[in-house]
Amino acid sequence: MFRLTSETGLPMLRSSLLDEIPGVWHGFTTRIGGVSAGMFAYLNLSLNVGDSPDAVLQNRSLLAKSAGIMPEVVTLQAQQHGSEVVLCDELSPEAAHRADAFVATREAIPVLVGTADCVPVLLASEDGRIVASIHAGWKGVLAEVIPRTITAMRTVSGTRPESVRAAIGPHIRACCFEVGDDVASRFRREHVVERHARDGKLYVDLSAAAVCQLEDSGIAMKNIDVSSMCTVCRRDLLFSHRASGGTTGRTVAMIMRLR
Ligand SMILES: [Zn+2]
Fold first, then answer.
1. Phi/psi of residue 73, each to 5°?
2. What is the pLDDT of residues 48-60, one digit of tens each?
C-alpha cells in the first residue's frame, strides 16, 4: 500500500512493502514542496526540461535533506526509453550513463529515475542488500527493462527474485493512456482496454503490463505494491508529460541503502 507522508520534510509517496525492509530508504516525490514556477511548479527535479537550473538544484537540496544525503549525489542519468541496466556502486556525475535501470549494492549510493507519466519501479531485496530503480515507459516495458533489471540483480549479488520486493509508483494509467493501433498491437491483448461505450478508442494498461513482467520474473504478487494514482488524473499532485502538452517537470523515484 502507498501512503503520502511528509515525515521527513518533503511530501512523498512511500510503499509499505519497501518501508518494512531494514536499512533501505525510498520515496516517490510529488510536485509539491519545491521552488520551481510555471509549468514546473513546484518540485521539478530534472535539469533537462527547460526549468531554471537554480530552482532544480534547490529542489534537489530539499530532496537530499529529506533523505539525509549530500545534494551532489542527487543526479539523474540520461534515460533512453531502452533496456540498459547499470550497476552504480560508485557515485556517477549527472548524465554519465545512458540507461533506464540502476542497481546499487553499496551503502549511501542513491539510485533514482525521473518520470512524468512513465512507470517508475523501485526494487529491493528483503535483506536490504541490493536496491534498484527503473524508468519504464511503454517503450521500456516492451524492451523488457523490468525483467532485465531483476536478472541483473541476480547476476550482481545472487539475489533470488523470490526475495525481491517491488513498488510501482504513479504513472499514466489505463484511464488516460490512449494509444494508436500501432502501439496497442505491440502489447499483450489482456493489457489493452477498448472502451466501446466511451469512445471506441484503445488504452494500454501499463500497470498490468509491469505487474505481469514482475510476476513472470519470479516476484510474488504479495511482494508487489502498485500506486493507484494516475499522473494525468492527479495533475494537482504529479507531473504529466501528456496532459501538459510536453513541457513539465519530473518527479523522481529514489532508493538507497542506508549507511
Ligand atoms: Zn487517468
1. -85, -5
2. 999 999 999 999 9
CA distance 229 to 237: 10
Mean pLDDT, residues 6-35 taken together: 96
Distance in Å, CA 161 to ligand 1 centroid: 30
Q: 177 CA to middle of ligand 1, Å?
A: 7
Percentage above 70 pLDDT, the chain = 100
The three-state secondary structure class of 146 is helix
Total-model pTM: 0.98
pLDDT of residue 197: 74
User: Ligand 1 centre from 210 Cα, in Å?
Assistant: 17
Helix (H, G, I), strand (E, B) or coil at 148: helix
Residue 171 Cα to ligand 1 midpoint, Å, equals 9
Nearest to 186 by CA among 254, 138, 132, 229: 138
Q: Is 26 helix (H, G, I), strand (E, B) or coil?
A: strand
Question: Which letter, b or e, does each residue of 172-204 get, where b requires 16 or more Cβ atoms within 10 Å of its Cβ?
Answer: bbbebbbbeeebbeebeeebbbeeeeeeeebbb
The helices-and-strands tally (H runs, E runs) of the chain is: 6, 14
For ligand 1, a single-atom ion, the residues with CB < 5 A are 175-176, 230, 232-233
Cα separation, 107 vs 6, in Å, equals 24
Full set of structural domains in the chain with CATH = 2-257 (3.60.140.10)
